Task: structure prediction
Amino acid sequence: MRLLYLVHDLSDSAVWRRVAMLERAGATVSVAGFDRGKGTPGGPAIRLGLTRDGKMRQRVMAVARAMTALGPALRHQTAPDAIIARNLEMLALARRARMLWRGPRPRLVYEVLDIHRMMLGEGRRARTLRRVERWLAQPVDLVLTSSPAFVRHYFDRYRPCAAPVRVVENKSFGADLPRAQLKEASTPPPLVIGWFGILRCAVSLDVLDRLTRHMPGRLRVDLRGRPAYDAIPDFDGRVAANPDLVFHGPFRNPEDLGAIYGAVHLAWAVDRFDAGENSDWLLPNRLYEGCLHGAVPIALAGTELTRLLAAEGIGIVLPDLAPETVAASLALDDPDRLARLRGAVANSPAERWAITRQDCDDLLCAIVQRPPARPRQMADTQEVLS
Result:
């Protein structure tokens, strides 16, 4: 089974997690997409150009240039059985790519991992963009998204596509260590919160900065990943000015997940970058990574994330983000409560957070519209993958 995966950011680890899932199900995956100038691709890829975060006009121009370069770039590729377009800009290229080979058209899959604020509301720009999306999505056979809230609040409301929508959560690889053997974070104080991944939420940085200043020496925040300087231009200065905010730089995903989450007590999963919209609807990567490796997730009330935490019986839910409220919600002076919170996460099934072999097989079958193979024994289908 041959797949062509068109992606907006070749350095995004989530792209390569998806590639790994499909390859483990038996597919041959060719990847083509744009560099963001922030890192190296996680595997072999065809580069279609350079784009920048937050520069929508520049990205549109890059896609227009790639339209003419797509044929030469893919001329040595065997016709795929399906093309997966990750995000709207890549859907435009995917429609063009479907015309490059003779014979039956490849199936077209539209992968939507975030709902951009420009797509929402009843303003002229939002309505125009949704009309463009609706036109581009006419030949789409399947939509993939990562949260049930995206289906309720966007796909069911605006009907941008007639194709069926499938939710594939952002589960993690990296389950190669038995969870009982994961490194235990030191006994507080300080209580250690980990905020890992794309660091783009200025509200979160402000809350964590004020919180640690409110209780110096009792709370530390470890930050790892890639700061989004277009969203938090003063990130470096804020961190440098606070000894209890410690930025450790990028990390390898999934290779470093056990070590970095095993060294913290709690995982900050609050996102207010698109408050009231995308931030309230998403189920972030850091939820699955943290829970798989024993860190207690922290979420804000009223979000899709808190619905999931309530269903699983885990985590800390903040009523609001006032520093005194956050401080009262944490287990700063109650080691027994902290132990119970960590125990609840540790006792949750690993396959709830980790990608299983059945997840990989089911995803590929949905993409190529192939009936699932007869299930293996339960021990095989629920095998978590490292």
Notes: Residues 56-73 form the longest helix (18 residues). Residues 2-171+355-381 form a domain with the Rossmann fold fold (CATH 3.40.50.2000).
